[in-house]
Design a protein that fits this description.
20% strand, 8 strands, 9 helices, 281 residues, alpha+beta
Length: 281
Amino acid sequence: GVDGTYIRFAADLASVLDDADLRVIAIIGKGSLQNISDIMLVRGIDIGIVQSDALAFARRNRLLPGVESQIQYITKLYDEEVHVLARAGIASVQDLAGQVVNVDVRGSGTAMTASLLFEGLGVRPQFAFDPQDVALTKLRAGEIAAMVFVAGKPARLFASIPPDSGLSFLAIPATPALLETYLPTTLTANEYPSLIGPGGSVETIAVGAVMAVYAWQPGSERHRKVARFIEAMTGKFDQFLRPPRHPKWREVNLAAQVPGWTRFDPNPPRVPRRRGEGEGQ
């Protein structure tokens, strides 16, 4: 949406990089899976911003044939932490088996991540699809067991929860299966003083926002255009770290790896032609 982080990043890219040699046009997308589909299928679309687990979700559910070979990444952007907030009496993620757990509206990034998360842990809750503010009200009233929210910490949604609410974050173990797609991280008392005791922390995982790109054939005009984009972004990267650009740019590491993804190579090695190849007979 117009207030989302993705479109603000795209607007920053257009502001910094758009010049006589490079035209950057920002388009509002409809979520990670639709963005991947647009990169693959919509004419004129080269790059999109998606959650890093979108590729695994599309592959697992066979939603987009050929996605593994057609979608690559330019860089990892920033991380969004997975929050699982539960009512009193729920001590672990395993306790959520058969319980009602809200995962945001259908088709959301949180719903996609929750599906992969619980499958990876072998836990089968009953999913509900209320907006997050409605879900928090139901959780505090004891109408649901837990809610999942994927957002950069500290999430403002949880700021108004009092210390005596009885709610708490559940630890998400960084299992080998989950680490194929996600990164280990923690939620701390500094970020959520009303939900985590002084000096405490809760183990969880983070999903990265990724700049995805179509795997253009090296030597093609579209490959050269993307390569120019990467060269410009790298050369002007310091400009993204200063106001008025989004503060999340300070988390970007252009060299970071993304598990399960293939990096787009703007400068693939040239294969020497054999004698006589391409020459007139």
